[in-house]
Design brief:
The protein is 74% helix and 0% strand. By secondary structure, it is mainly α. The model has no long low-confidence stretch (mean pLDDT 87). The chain crosses the membrane at residues 20-41, 77-94, 100-119, 140-162.
Length: 169
């Protein structure tokens, strides 16, 4: 009797997989939006501008901005791009094409920030018990690997919606 009840519970969960997946996808998409928007809004503060300058000043993708923008202006520009990215990801509900642009921008943002792991001095500290350790700066950047995946997922979902709406299979 107990085994039958367990089997019924497992069967019910398995029948709910589409709903569970949809909830998970929504949390990933809109969680990504909240994180990107929040990070973008923080770029308008002096403390965040100073903090990110240690990354951008060593980046082959971003250090060229030092030639004509102040640290604060660079941070503001990055903030605008991040907020725009978040808005575009949300706009997927009305236009999958805009959502795809947002997902692509998000992926680009996180590829660039992950590159800081390799370009910023002091990211890798000495080994910790035989395992390569990351400094606090490196630990701060490592989350961007998951955010990159979420951006690619958002991009893929938007592209799928575009494909389905255009009748291309």
């Amino acid at each position: 009797m107990r085994g039958k009840s367990l089997n019924n519970s497992v069967s019910h969960i398995l029948q709910s997989t589409d709903h569970i997946t949809a909830v998970g996808n929504a949390i990933v998409r809109y969680g990504l939006v909240v994180v990107i928007a929040w990070i973008g809004l923080m770029k308008f503060t002096a403390s965040e501008a100073m903090r990110i300058s240690q990354f951008t000043s060593h980046s082959p993708f971003m250090s060229w901005l030092n030639g004509f923008l102040s640290i604060r202006a660079q941070s503001n520009v990055i903030g605008v791009i991040e907020i725009l990215t978040a808005v575009l990801i949300v706009l997927n509900v009305v236009s999958p094409r805009l959502g795809a642009v947002g997902g692509a921008l998000g992926a680009l943002l996180f590829v660039i920030t992950l590159s800081f792991l390799f370009t910023t001095p002091g990211i890798g500290d000495s080994a910790a018990g035989g395992f390569p350790a990351l400094s606090r700066l490196g630990e701060f950047l490592l989350k961007d690997l998951v955010l990159l995946g979420a951006s690619i997922l958002a991009l893929g979902q938007s592209l799928t919606a575009i494909r389905l709406s255009s009748g291309v299979d």
